[in-house]
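Researcher: Let's do a round of design. I'm pasting the structure tokens now; please hold your answer until I've finished.
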């Protein structure tokens, strides 16, 4: 497998994991009095994940698609099908004006990218401010590279043993290692994660690879993470927008809204830090 095919396979694997969630139950939460504390409210049942609802204004964490296929505007916080016109769905959007710029129309569908501020009751998003993509400054948004190197001290031992064929052989050898978890490329560095004996793994891989190599130890294999991801999707249901393993030994999950209670629940369920929860809607202040 060439480096290009490896990266494509890794990207496809990540995309396959980033799925829309199925319906599920909710979990019991401590009651919160928004009038007394100003904190978001949460509802839950005894055997599932919390279902927080924001109290007060929220904003989208960056640009999102607003789409109206004739049934009214919807806020597409999750995946958007790359058709023409695009296809997506989400909470109904009320008090929204398309404005003079920022949207397209085709086949009876109108859509555009906006940064929205408003209130969300768990069903509808009531807009108080809408900034079209053409007027939105994205310079301050953080970026993350899921294919970054796992260590800063990767070294080269033999530049003559770093051909594409050597890379293919090394990745094949990595998949046969005891405790193999995953492997990925960052530039010309081969990154391999194992659950045991990293020194032995590196020694084995150096038999075929003299280029940049980084071997790290993790607790969970890809199979372990896939199993947890399936549980996560079942528990969170349509509150979960995307989820998948984009970094070794961890899962990333984006939900419609989290006040911290879903993150706390995930930490209690699978251990601190294994699942990182991000919220598509965040407090406006």
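Researcher: That's everything. Go ahead.
Model: Designed sequence:
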């Amino acid at each position: 497998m060439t480096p290009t095919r490896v990266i494509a396979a890794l990207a496809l694997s990540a995309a396959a994991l980033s799925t829309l969630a199925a319906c599920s139950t909710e979990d019991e939460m401590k009651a919160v009095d928004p009038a007394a504390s100003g904190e978001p409210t949460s509802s839950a049942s005894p055997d599932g994940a919390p279902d927080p609802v924001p109290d007060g204004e929220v904003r989208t964490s960056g640009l999102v698609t607003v789409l109206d296929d004739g049934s009214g505007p919807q806020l597409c916080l999750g995946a958007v099908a790359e058709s023409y016109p695009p296809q997506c769905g989400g909470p109904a959007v009320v008090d929204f004006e398309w404005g003079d710029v920022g949207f397209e129309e085709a086949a009876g569908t109108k859509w555009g990218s906006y940064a929205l501020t408003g209130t969300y009751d768990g069903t509808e998003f009531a807009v108080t401010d809408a900034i079209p993509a053409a007027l939105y400054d994205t310079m301050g948004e953080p970026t993350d590279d899921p294919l970054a190197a796992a260590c800063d001290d990767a070294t080269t031992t033999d530049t003559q043993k770093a051909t594409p064929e050597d890379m293919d052989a090394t990745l094949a050898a990595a998949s046969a290692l005891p405790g193999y978890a995953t492997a990925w490329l960052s530039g010309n560095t081969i990154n391999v994660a194992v659950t045991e004996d990293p020194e032995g793994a590196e020694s084995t891989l150096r038999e075929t690879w003299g280029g940049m190599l980084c071997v790290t130890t993790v607790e969970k294999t890809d199979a372990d993470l896939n199993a947890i991801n399936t549980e996560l999707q079942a528990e969170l249901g349509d509150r979960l927008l995307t989820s998948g393993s984009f970094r070794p030994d961890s899962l990333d999950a984006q939900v419609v809204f989290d006040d911290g209670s879903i993150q706390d629940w995930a930490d209690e369920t699978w251990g601190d830090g294994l699942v990182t929860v991000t919220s598509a809607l965040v407090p406006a202040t």
